[in-house]
Design a protein that fits this description.
The protein has 165 residues and is α/β, with parallel strands linked by helices. The protein is built from 5 helices and 6 strands; from the N terminus they run E-H-E-H-E-H-E-H-E-E-H.
Length: 165
């Protein structure tokens, strides 16, 4: 299985007095613009995935919808999963992926959870990566179990935007 992990784009700042609760934090206009450009770049690396799963938090869901649009994936087929919430245990997402029986899945979530998931799949206990906002990584896994993954690539949003040009 090939698993694409994408961190949400730039969202409204937590320190902003008008900031909604964490689950309802949304992408800023700049976040939307940069995320769309990054997802255009991601399109050069990824064919249409078999499945898209997102954290239920608004900023991740918005990022997933932008990616779906850029990749020609139907937005109404995007699944939401608590296994992609910020505090979820990495093994929970592996269990979720086992249920899908797909070759390529794209997951949208948060830091540091996605980095801890990568570490878990590589057999580590602490993060060895640091996905930036609207950045993406690709894990290749022969079987969906801890320690059986290979990190194929990791790109920052800036690098993905450069690929789009």
């Amino acid at each position: 299985m090939r698993i694409y992990l994408v961190r949400h784009g730039i969202a409204v700042d937590r320190e902003d007095p008008k900031c909604p609760s964490d689950p309802k934090r949304y992408l800023t206009p700049e976040g939307i613009k940069k995320t769309r450009a990054a997802m255009r770049g991601l399109r050069t690396l990824v064919t249409k995935p078999d499945g898209i799963i997102t954290s239920p938090y608004l900023r991740a869901a918005e990022t997933a919808e932008i990616a779906a649009d850029e990749l020609g994936y139907p937005a109404d087929k995007i699944l939401q999963s608590d296994a992609l919430l910020p505090g979820a245990v990495p093994s929970q997402l592996l269990r979720e992926l086992v249920k899908l029986s797909a070759e390529e899945v794209m997951c949208f979530g948060h830091a540091p959870h996605l980095d801890l998931f990568i570490a878990h799949c590589l057999g580590g206990r602490s993060a060895v990566t640091e996905l930036k906002k609207a950045g993406a990584a690709c894990l290749e896994m022969e079987k969906l179990s801890a320690g059986s993954g290979v990190l194929a690539w990791l790109f920052t949003s800036k690098a993905l935007r450069a690929l789009a040009q």
